[in-house]
Every structure is written in structure tokens, then in C-alpha cells.
């Protein structure tokens, strides 16, 4: 029986970081990524996984230092996303993402910040469904280093999404995102994350909102052998037409044969339980991976 879960992802980037002065630096990146989506990620079950290619350029600017009373960050990213199989050219799009953050230090290990984000989506072929839109996010957050073992970032606020087409349904909701890292040992790390944000759709809905909670454990037995375990639970809310409960669990082990070659064995299980029966999906995968670490 032919496996439909095989894929080969590629990532190539050119990065530059300039410290123009003691208080001002610039980060630049140009990248190409060839990636994939699991067969049920988008809410529609395809025979094969969805594959895509993305060109992206990024520029980030920071004024001030983390140790100063205030820090200003601004960044902009331009991306061109193209789906390369399953007849999904209607999903091809160009995205402009801009964000600005102002940090205020409350002490040596804690800062609060305000963030504004704006994403503009322009679909290359909107003939099927014109989903050109603008998203705006408004967040207040906190970044802390409670101890040398625990660090985290949490932000909460709201978003609104406005479509160019009057046929599509505009929307707004709560937006939040958090990442908490706990290092009980130098060789063992736990990462807790949760988020609520809008997503671009493949269904007849205008968009959907994904809520996710995840827990990840990375443990190194030695310099060559490491273990990863992860759990994820979530929900996709398709603007009232359907709701999907998501669950994912995985365990994997990696071994560095050489400084430049890492191989792994991973087992994952995915489940989507939808109010639309045809969207239900269960998958168990056993994967052998190889990663080229450096030239």
C-alpha cells in the first residue's frame, strides 16, 4: 500500500543583524521554504498532504536596549505563498505583515508592552472566493524572567478582520498568545503555549478562529541522543457553521550520527472531531526523519 504521508521540506535563509549604535539595531532576512500541511490541517481531508512554497523577506528595527526603561520594536514581512498540489491555486496569496511594540521595564526581569499588528492578504486568484482582507490586532502583554529556570511572554487583546468583498463576513474576537518555558535542568525543558487567533480558510466560510493549548517536553540524554514528547488540544470555530475539536500527541527520538547529520524516529496521532461528519479525521503516523544540520 502506497504511503501518502511522505514529504520533503526545505528551508533556506540569508540573515543579517546590524548593531548600528548602542541603541539601534536592524535585522534582515530573506528566506525560501518548501513545506506541507497534514491532510486535515485545513479542515478538508485530502488524499495527499497539501504542499506549498513560500518566499519571504523580513526587516526588523529596534530602538533602545532590553535593560533600558523603554524599548521600541517595529518589523515588516512580505511573503508570497503558493500551493503546489491538490488543485489549490485559489489559496495562493501575498501577505504584508506589520507590527509595532513598545516595552516598558518594571525591573531587571519584567517588562510590560503594547502591540499593534496589521496583516493584509491579497489572493492571486480570487475568482472562486474573494478573501482579500485586512486584520488588525491590539494587545497588551507582559514578558518576564521569574527565575533562571522560568521565562515567559503573555499578551491579550482583540482583533478585527475586514474583507474587501461585501459577500464575506467581517468579524472580531478576543486574541491572546502565551509561551512559558520552564527549565528544571539544563538538559530538560518544558514549553507551555496557548493562543486564540483567526486563520485563513479553505471552506466556504470567510475565516475561522483557532484556539490551541500545547505542552512540549525536550530532554537530552547526552550530546547526541534526545527525546521529545508533545500534546496539543484545540478547537476550530468556522464562524458558526461548524466546530471542530482537535487533538494531537507525539513522541520522537533523535540521534546525531555526525555534527552535520541528525536522524529521528517519530510517532504521532492526530484527530479532528467535527460537527460536520465528513470532516472527521484520524491519523497515526510513524516517521523516519533526517536533518542536515550544517554544511
How would you describe the overall organization of this protein?
This protein has no helices and 15 strands. With 295 residues, the protein is mainly beta. It has a 15-stranded antiparallel sheet with strand order 1-2-3-4-5-6-7-8-9-10-11-12-13-14-15, with no helix packed on it. Strand 5 and strand 6 form a beta hairpin. The protein is globular and about 50 Å long. It starts with 9 loop residues before the first strand and ends with a strand.
Break the fold down into its secondary structure elements and pairings.
Elements: E1 10-19, E2 24-37, E3 50-63, E4 70-83, E5 93-105, E6 110-123, E7 133-145, E8 150-163, E9 171-185, E10 188-199, E11 208-220, E12 225-237, E13 243-258, E14 261-274, E15 281-292
Antiparallel strand pairs: 1-2, 2-3, 3-4, 4-5, 5-6, 6-7, 7-8, 8-9, 9-10, 10-11, 11-12, 12-13, 13-14, 14-15
Roughly how many Å apart are the termini? 36 Å
Biggest beta sheet summary: 15 strands, antiparallel
Shape: globular
* Helix/strand structural class: mainly beta
Order of helices and strands: EEEEEEEEEEEEEEE
Number of helices: 0
Q: Percent helix among the residues?
A: under 10%
Uncertain spans: none
Quaternary organisation: single chain
Strand order of the largest sheet: 1-2-3-4-5-6-7-8-9-10-11-12-13-14-15
- Beta-strand content estimate: over 45%
Radius of gyration: 21 Å
Number of strands: 15
Mean pLDDT: 90
Amino acid at each position: 500500500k502506497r504511503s501518502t504521508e511522505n514529504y520533503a521540506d526545505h528551508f533556506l535563509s540569508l540573515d543579517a543583524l546590524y548593531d548600528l549604535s548602542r541603541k539601534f539595531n536592524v535585522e534582515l532576512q530573506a528566506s525560501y521554504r518548501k513545506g506541507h500541511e497534514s491532510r486535515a490541517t485545513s479542515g478538508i481531508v485530502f488524499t495527499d498532504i497539501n504542499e506549498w512554497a513560500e518566499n519571504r523577506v523580513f526587516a526588523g528595527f529596534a530602538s533602545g536596549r532590553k535593560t533600558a526603561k523603554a524599548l521600541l520594536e517595529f518589523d515588516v514581512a512580505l511573503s508570497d505563498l503558493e500551493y503546489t498540489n491538490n488543485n489549490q491555486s485559489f489559496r495562493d496569496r501575498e501577505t504584508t505583515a506589520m507590527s509595532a511594540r513598545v516595552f516598558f521595564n518594571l525591573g531587571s526581569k519584567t517588562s510590560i508592552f503594547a502591540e499593534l499588528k496589521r496583516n493584509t492578504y491579497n489572493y492571486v486568484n480570487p475568482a472562486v472566493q474573494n478573501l482579500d482582507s485586512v486584520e488588525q490586532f491590539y494587545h497588551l502583554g507582559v514578558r518576564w524572567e521569574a527565575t533562571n529556570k522560568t521565562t515567559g511572554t503573555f499578551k491579550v487583546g482583540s482583533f478585527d478582520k475586514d474583507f474587501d468583498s461585501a459577500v464575506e463576513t467581517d468579524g472580531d474576537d478576543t486574541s491572546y498568545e502565551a509561551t512559558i518555558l520552564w527549565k528544571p535542568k539544563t538538559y530538560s525543558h518544558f514549553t507551555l503555549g496557548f493562543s486564540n487567533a483567526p486563520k485563513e480558510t479553505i471552506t466556504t466560510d470567510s475565516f475561522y478562529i483557532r484556539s490551541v493549548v500545547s505542552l512540549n517536553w525536550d530532554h537530552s540524554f547526552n550530546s547526541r541522543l534526545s527525546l521529545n514528547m508533545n500534546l496539543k488540544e484545540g478547537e476550530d470555530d468556522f464562524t458558526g457553521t461548524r466546530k471542530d475539536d482537535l487533538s494531537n500527541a507525539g513522541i520522537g527520538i533523535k540521534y546525531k550520527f555526525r555534527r552535520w547529520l541528525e536522524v529521528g524516529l517519530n510517532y504521532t496521532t492526530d484527530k479532528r472531531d467535527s460537527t460536520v461528519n465528513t470532516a472527521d479525521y484520524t491519523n497515526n503516523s510513524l516517521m523516519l526523519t533526517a536533518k542536515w544540520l550544517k554544511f
